[in-house]
């Protein structure tokens, strides 16, 4: 059997897809490597969410082609630009989309023949339950995809057109996978989907994330459960009370709001209501909650007044964590034809202004932790021997960390009590007690 290499780009959801591809390869007897120099065949799992992500994926494809590899292009970029990609890079050996993972083996069997495309015209993501993921990142945390696709049509987002409508996995399959992850030593499970809070509507006729959380909370050996990518209208009191009540569910809510001005939200096809009430309700129902959000600046038509509305909203709400993205114009999205476009320079200035404000907010929040004791999950060590950990307010890879000086040996995945002694803008410093 041939040895196959894989290069993975994009979000956590794409990472899970890459791990499923590796599982499929292993199941079919292929030898796998993450070092592309050791294989003649390379799968590049691509991202096409924004222009920068596309460029990064294309760079990888060209690099592999120039090194004489047989390249199979997988994922969102293949789905979005199937014709253009093959035309511009004729050396590509095969392509399949994000909803066609199960077609990988038949492409490999025909890799020595002519170019082969297995891209669905109507994407529909069905999770390949018979495949056991081969994890690329084995550590304290692991992502668990509970659904894919999306029923919303936000103005800036291409994902529903690449992955199809929302598709939930069954509760039984999710719990079964969670137990397997815990048996491999995973302490924290991070639930992901395009929108985790819509989980179950397609299968059970109502949002069912609450039931998933309750069942996960009963798994012996599991330390933390984290929910990412919540949707504003789906943050019901029942769900918030469940997060507050369950001891393993971290008191952290990730809810990308995208903007605050009602006219901007309407233009984005987002729920347009007063988000201040929503944030107040989350804080009221989940004591000591940490809230992460994300915003887009420079969406077509965004005025200075609308940006100021957003700036004041951020100033007042004091989010624990926040990302700010400049609008990326994507062909095939509802916003593609909208005018007027905001100049790139203005977008960058707005992004910088918001992030400087957030830096100050984050520093003040971090200062408030000094002297307090937080439960922290151990991730590993820095090169100079400092322990790297995360509090419940820090999601893996996107938020800050806690640096700990200690001579006591620790094990990645363990949850330790850490007294916070100092801080930076985004990171904390502490000692194990």
CATH superfamily of the largest domain: tm_1862 like domain
Find the structural class using helix and strand composition. alpha/beta
Tally of extended strands? 19
Shape: globular
* CATH architecture heading of the largest domain: Alpha-Beta Horseshoe
Strand order of the largest sheet: 2-1-3-4-5-6
Can you give a write-up of this model?
The chain is built from 14 helices and 19 strands. It has 433 residues and is α/β, with parallel strands linked by helices. Strand 3, helix 2 and strand 4 (70-75) form a beta-alpha-beta unit. The protein has helices at residues 12-27, 51-66, 76-80, 82-88, 104-109, 159-163, 171-183, 201-204, 209-217, 237-245, 262-267, 275-285, 304-317, 344-367; strands spanning 3-8, 31-33, 41-46, 70-75, 94-96, 116-118, 141-145, 147-148, 167-168, 188-192, 224-227, 252-254, 290-297, 321-326, 373-381, 387-391, 402-404, 415-423, 428-432. The mean pLDDT is 95. A 6-stranded parallel β-sheet has the order 2-1-3-4-5-6, sandwiched between helices. Strands 15-16-17-19-18 form a 5-stranded mixed β-barrel. It has a 3-stranded parallel β-sheet with strand order 7-10-11. It has 3 domains: 3-118, Rossmann fold, CATH 3.40.50; 141-367, pyruvate-formate lyase- activating enzyme (Alpha-Beta Horseshoe), CATH 3.80.30.20; 373-432, OB fold (Dihydrolipoamide Acetyltransferase, E2P), CATH 2.40.50.
List keywords for this structure.
single chain; 433 residues; 5-stranded mixed β-barrel; alpha/beta; OB fold (Dihydrolipoamide Acetyltransferase, E2P); Rossmann fold; pyruvate-formate lyase- activating enzyme; 33% helix; 6-stranded parallel sheet
């Amino acid at each position: 059997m041939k040895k196959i290499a894989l290069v993975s780009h994009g979000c956590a959801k794409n990472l899970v897809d890459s791990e499923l591809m590796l599982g499929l390869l292993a199941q079919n007897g292929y030898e796998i490597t993450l070092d592309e120099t050791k294989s003649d065949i390379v799968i590049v799992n691509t991202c096409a969410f924004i222009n920068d992500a596309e460029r990064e994926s294309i760079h990888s494809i060209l690099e592999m082609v120039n090194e004489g590899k047989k390249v199979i292009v997988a994922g969102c970029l293949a789905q979005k630009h199937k014709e253009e990609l093959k035309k511009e890079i004729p050396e590509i050996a095969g392509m399949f989309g994000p909803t066609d993972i199960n077609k990988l083996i038949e492409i490999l069997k025909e890799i020595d023949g002519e170019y082969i495309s297995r891209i669905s015209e109507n994407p529909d993501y069905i999770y390949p339950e018979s495949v056991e993921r081969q994890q690329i990142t084995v550590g304290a945390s692991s992502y668990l995809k509970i659904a894919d696709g999306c029923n919303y049509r936000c103005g800036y987002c291409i994902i529903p057109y690449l992955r199809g409508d929302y598709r939930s996995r069954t509760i039984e399959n999710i719990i079964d996978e969670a137990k397997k992850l815990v048996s491999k030593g995973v302490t924290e499970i991070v639930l992901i989907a395009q929108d985790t809070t819509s989980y179950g509507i397609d299968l059970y006729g109502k949002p069912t994330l609450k039931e998933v959380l309750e069942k996960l909370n009963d798994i012996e050996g599991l330390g933390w459960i984290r929910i990412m990518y919540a949707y504003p209208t789906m943050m019901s009191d029942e769900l918030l009370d469940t997060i507050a009540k369950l001891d393993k569910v971290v008191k952290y809510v990730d809810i990308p709001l995208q903007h605050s001005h009602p006219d901007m939200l309407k233009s984005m096809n987002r729920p347009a209501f007063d988000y201040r009430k929503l944030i107040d309700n989350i804080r009221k129902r989940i004591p000591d909650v940490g809230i992460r959000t994300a915003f887009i600046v420079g969406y077509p038509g965004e005025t200075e007044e609308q940006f100021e509305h957003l700036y004041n909203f951020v100033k007042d709400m004091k989010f624990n964590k926040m990302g700010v993205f400049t609008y990326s114009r994507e062909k095939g999205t509802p916003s593609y034809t909208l005018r007027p476009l905001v100049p790139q320079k203005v977008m960058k200035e707005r992004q910088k202004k918001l992030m400087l404000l957030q830096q100050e907010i984050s520093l003040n929040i971090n200062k408030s932790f000094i002297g307090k004791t937080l439960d922290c999950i151990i991730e590993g060590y820095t090169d100079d021997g400092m322990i790297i950990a995360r509090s419940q307010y820090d999601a893996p890879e996107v938020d800050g960390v806690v640096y700990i000086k200690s001579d006591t040996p620790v094990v990645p995945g363990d949850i330790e009590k850490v007294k916070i002694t100092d801080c930076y803008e985004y990171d904390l410093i502490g000692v194990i007690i």
